[in-house]
């Protein structure tokens, strides 16, 4: 790798190892490309337009942005310690827990436990984002005046509100581990003919070889296919052309009609319920515990996904409006 980078890419050893061992990139995340790293280090990213001034450009202050991420991360850590200590998710896969609690109680436990478990990741990512921002990474450029900074979200790895209030799987995945998700999309998904199976297999192997990782990640393609069918054939029945699924649902929530609001709220509940059922095995890890917990729900979510997939295949697609309005898919 070193030989290829130095000889073929024309990269100096210092630059190569500086990038590889940059704490806020490869080692701890959020990940960013080599060109981003170089432009931040040499200061060229902070040049205003094409103007070249003598000496290294001054890096805009990012201290308050970094402190905000640090404080948010610490709040998430406290929530993880409080909720995670009382609701340990691995308990969901034990025989004692399954046999002594009803289905509704177990599902409620999983919803609370996984909310607390996510706080652990939010803490790590927000603190890492803060470290990146403090080093100048994540800079989004200047406004037209050449002075006002647009923002420091270029290194953002998690959109907490966007994830917790996602109305569909695509919104949810775009908000979670954003930098890694982008890496997988560029270097796996687009290079394997847009194969979901290949992409999520790589992601599972990347995390490790516990059975729970593979059980979860290989369920996601089925979730994705069902969601695509819903976007194409169900969404147009409830959402008009003013709704843009690629924008924040809640930023446009107020201007939507009542029918659309009720539908989106149902989508939020359904999305989080299905993802929590599926992702619990990611944290349970073992094959026995994962199958025991899924089996205690009679695999109903999996069965319903398969049924929905088949029904959506045969369901007619609503006709596009004659005025050329954009579809919601």
Descriptive tags:
329 residues; 0% strand; mainly alpha; disordered C terminus; single chain
Terminal-residue CA separation: 41 Å
Question: Roughly what is the average pLDDT, rounded to an integer?
Answer: 86
- Tell me about the biggest sheet? none
Radius of gyration, CA atoms, in whole angstroms: 23 Å
Task: Explain what this protein looks like in three dimensions.
The protein is an all-alpha fold and 329 residues long. 61% of the residues lie in helices and 0% in strands. It is built from 17 helices and no strands.
Describe the structure in brief:
The chain has 329 residues and is mainly alpha-helical. It has 17 helices and no strands.
What are the SSEs and their pairings?
Layout: H1 2-8, H2 13-20, H3 23-27, H4 34-41, H5 63-86, H6 95-100, H7 103-134, H8 160-164, H9 169-175, H10 178-189, H11 196-207, H12 211-217, H13 220-233, H14 235-238, H15 258-284, H16 287-295, H17 300-314
């Amino acid at each position: 790798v070193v030989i290829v980078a130095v000889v073929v890419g024309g990269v100096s050893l210092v630059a190569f190892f500086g990038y590889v061992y940059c704490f806020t990139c490869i080692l701890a995340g959020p990940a960013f490309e080599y060109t981003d790293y170089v432009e931040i280090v040499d200061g060229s990213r902070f040049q205003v337009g094409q103007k070249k001034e003598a000496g290294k450009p001054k890096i805009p202050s990012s201290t308050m942005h970094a402190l905000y991420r640090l404080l948010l991360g610490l709040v998430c850590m406290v929530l993880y310690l409080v909720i995670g200590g009382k609701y340990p998710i691995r308990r969901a896969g034990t025989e004692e827990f399954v046999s002594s609690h009803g289905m509704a109680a177990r599902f409620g436990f999983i919803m609370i436990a996984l909310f607390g478990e996510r706080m652990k990741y939010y803490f790590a990512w927000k603190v890492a984002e803060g470290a990146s921002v403090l080093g100048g990474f994540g800079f989004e450029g200047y406004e037209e005046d050449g002075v006002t900074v647009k923002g420091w979200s270029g290194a953002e790895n998690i959109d907490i509100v966007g994830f917790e209030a996602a109305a569909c799987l695509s919104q949810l995945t775009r908000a979670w581990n954003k930098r890694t998700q982008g890496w997988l999309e560029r270097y796996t998904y687009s290079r394997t003919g847009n194969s979901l199976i290949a992409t999520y297999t790589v992601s599972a192997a990347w995390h490790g070889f516990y059975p729970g990782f593979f059980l979860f990640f290989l369920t996601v393609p089925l979730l994705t296919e069902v969601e695509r069918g819903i976007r194409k054939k169900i969404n147009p029945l409830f959402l008009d052309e003013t709704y843009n699924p690629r924008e924040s649902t809640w930023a446009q929530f107020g201007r939507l009609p009542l029918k659309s609001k009720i539908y989106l709220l149902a989508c939020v509940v359904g999305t989080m319920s299905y993802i929590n059922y599926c992702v619990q095995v990611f944290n349970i890890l073992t094959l026995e515990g994962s199958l025991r917990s899924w089996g205690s729900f009679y695999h109903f979510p999996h069965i319903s996904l398969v049924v929905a997939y088949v029904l959506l295949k045969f369901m007619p697609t609503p006709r596009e409006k004659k005025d050329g309005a954009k579809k919601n898919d």
